[in-house]
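stage 2 :: seqdesign
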């Protein structure tokens, strides 16, 4: 094939573009970790909805709304302090979600700190709080079951806590990976 300026140089058949078509590593890491962070945010919302459902009787009582009979039959316990401290942790996920669209590292840092302080810390306190019940459940033959429920609410809380720890730890890990990918990109732009 000929070009305007004559014949093509020998040895260039058009396949020498491979070295130029490589995406920088920090861009691919950013895309990968953005997707992972979005999944952790989705799971955080699911945990939030489960916790809000658990608080439904307390919310109805606080708002002076008549409590539905099926909720009265469940006899859900009142919220504990660590559960109330965990509820604002959804703000960390909101900050993180807002930071993803424009790669705003300040909002991502705020989301990370919110997840650590408002999310992971109350969950760890909840593990300490639930530990005696779980210990008695594992090592004793008979454990009390909530009336109206087919399971022990503390054991369900323990399962919720194990899932919440994993979601928050993955969120923190992927957020740190995302921050490192974004700072590599910004450091290269400064040079």
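stage 2 :: out
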């Amino acid at each position: 094939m000929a070009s305007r300026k004559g014949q093509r140089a020998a040895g260039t058949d058009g396949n020498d573009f491979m070295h130029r078509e490589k995406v920088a590593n920090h861009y691919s890491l950013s895309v990968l970790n953005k997707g992972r962070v979005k999944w952790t945010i989705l799971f955080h919302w699911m945990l939030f909805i489960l916790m809000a459902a658990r608080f439904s009787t307390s919310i109805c009582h606080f708002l002076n709304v008549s409590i539905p009979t099926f909720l009265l039959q469940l006899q859900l316990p009142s919220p504990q302090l660590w559960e109330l401290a965990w509820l604002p942790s959804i703000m960390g996920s909101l900050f993180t979600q807002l930071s993803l669209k424009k790669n705003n590292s300040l909002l991502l840092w705020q989301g990370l700190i919110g997840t650590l302080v408002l999310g992971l810390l109350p969950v760890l306190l909840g593990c300490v709080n639930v530990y005696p019940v779980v210990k008695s459940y594992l090592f004793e033959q008979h454990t009390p079951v909530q009336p109206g429920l087919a399971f022990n609410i503390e054991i369900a809380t323990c399962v919720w806590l194990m899932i919440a720890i994993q979601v928050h730890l993955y969120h923190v890990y992927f957020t740190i990976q995302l921050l490192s990918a974004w700072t590599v990109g910004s450091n290269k732009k400064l040079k």
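stage 3 :: structure notes
- Helices lie at 25-54, 56-62, 69-74, 81-86, 90-102, 105-139, 153-190.
- The beta strands are 2-3, 6-7.
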